[in-house]
Amino acid sequence: MISIADLLSDPAILPAAHESATWPFEEARKLVERLKRTGRKSVLFETGYGPSGLPHIGTFGEVARTTMVRTAFRILTEDKIPTRLLAFSDDMDGMRKVPDNVPNREMLFDYLHKPLTRVPDPFGTHESFGHHNNAMLRRFLDTFGFDYEFASATDYYTSGKFDEILLRAAERYQALMDIMLPTLGEERQATYSCFLPISPTTGRVLYVPMKNVDGKKGEVTFTDEDGTDVTVPVTGGHVKLQWKPDFGARWAALGVDFEMYGKDHQPNTVVYDSICRALGGEAPEHFVYELFLDEKGQKISKSKGNGLTIDEWLTYASPESLALFMFSKPREAKKLYFDVIPRQVDDYLTFLEKFPKQEWKEKLGNPVFHIHGGHPPQAEVLNDTAGHSTTVNFAMLLNLVAVANSEDKQVVWGFLKRYAPSASAANHPTLDQLIGYALVYYRDFVRPGKVFHAPAQEEHQALSDLSQALAAHEGSTDSDALQAIVYEIGRAHFPDLSGKSKSPDGRPGVSQAWFSTLYRVLLGAERGPRFGSFIALYGVAETRALIAKGLEGALIADHAHFMANREGR
Predict the structure, then answer these.
(1) pTM of the shown model
(2) Are residues 71 and 168 in the same domain?
């Protein structure tokens, strides 16, 4: 569990927390008011997971965001109210379609509409497909260090944990139907039932009307797939609830105080709440977040696999960068694809660097506070022998990897150690991990998209002058001094004549065309790093050699050769 006591040792945090406008504290304050109203002595947070497909980032997002609210609540209540987070898997749902992104798909078609925990695992590693997907979810949640309890619908339905609420649902069946039927079309109303029996003959989840519901005995009668009428108890895993009644019934059965879900559920909120109240429960506090979109703007689907998986994100970036993506603007629709990763990594590093210098009001608004439960690690910086320091971000590393022309971590470390001799993977573990991510991301996404440009006449002369000016600074790691040289050459060849930018002495500033020249000719990109910092890390001699290759067209030729080999030509 997160150490809230350490945070509360500073008396300035509580006033700031009660005034914080960040969404986790806003939601936490609603829970504080809820406890005043209900008199409850503990709080249960719940997240739901539908394991019909492989776990995706949205599932992780619910747990991460809920954890942020839980931490904010613990701070506001000075950690005096017990809290739990239950990650609930609806693994008793019938498999309604075979996912596109699993192996051995053909073996699953015979198991359509059977509970997911009775469908064979196409990966061959677990006792069922439901168990496999549950394990994938738990593996990541455990890796990230979430404090949660896992719950399986199959276990709760078959072990008796839901028996009381199921018997109550049978007793109040007509009240539940009165809630549900007005939400359905005429044709669906004729066959709808809150209960879904599990066929004793085929094992499938049946969407059939009930011929009788005996509230006193807790039994239902229906026509099975073989045409015979069957009576089964509503307890012991013989039936499950339709998904909308199941939502509200679970809240009532467990006493859930807080649950968030995607905007696609929002129209059903009144139904969920009404079902919960009809079964004697208090509807929880809700938080509705916007859905993630793929790069084409389409909703991400577990079965289609058109978004990033958890494992895919973690191939190219840290869990912290993913948590930042979840924290930022949860009520706005965001595209979730590979191109968003570098920005999330660098924004995380920027927030981390700012955190120690901030007052509590700013700290509580800093995403790293919520990502790390109030205890973010110290940002790693490189310090050279002259006392200059720099924070190496993902964008800078991608450019270093590009010019290093190597997939070896040690080559990149070689450049960094020349800037900061004491730097090493041992005392900069986060940076070492970042280098690994940069190497893989550059190989898969950046290098194939590089477009190197031949310099025009004025660009050629400016780059030649830059190389000559740098010659007198061989071995320098002073990024500010090197940046000043870059500016002077740029001002001489590409002055900003618009008057929008000026140097402190009143001279014209530098046109963006100069920096565009540096990036397009030397890095094959439209945007790039602060170039003085890049030279300090890469090396003056190496930068001059890079300029020479750019001027003679070698960078264009090298990239053309790479692309030809990549495409098998």
Answers:
(1) 0.89
(2) yes
